Amino acid sequence: MIQGENLLLVASLVMTYLFFYYGVFVLKAERRMMDVIFNSFIYGLVIWKLSYGIVHPNMVLENPLTLLYFNGGVVGLVLAAVFIVFYTYWHLKKEHIMSLGILSRQQGIFQ
Q: Which residues contact 88 (CB under 8 A, 6 or more apart)?
């Protein structure tokens, strides 16, 4: 029998592939912009996973391998989401990559 977690993993991988395919080939988004978005999600995943050490530092100090098994839960997700927003905004401004609003207007979505 297929476990629900594995089904969700496959569904998220397919959605990620479709997101990047749509961004690169349909919208013709800049590769730098897609790299920034991809990097921000990878960093967000790492922050979410390692945030267990922020939430439960005593448990991690007693047994560091708990970082491999547990995640930060809702607190970690919030930290990761905040980081993703600020990291993406900062890099888009720093590298002078066009914003998503300008991109959507150029593609004629708001016309």
A: 36, 37, 40
Element holding 23 (H helix, E strand): none
Q: How far apart are CA 101 and CA 78, in angstroms?
A: 24
- Output the CA–CA distances (angstroms, integers) from residue 71 to 48, 84, 98, 111, in the order listed: 6, 17, 34, 44
How far apart (Å, rounded) are the C-alpha atoms in residues 88 and 77? 16
Structure tokens at 15: 């959605």
The per-residue pLDDT for range 30-78, each reduced to its tens digit, is 777 778 888 988 998 899 889 999 989 999 999 999 888 888 888 988 9
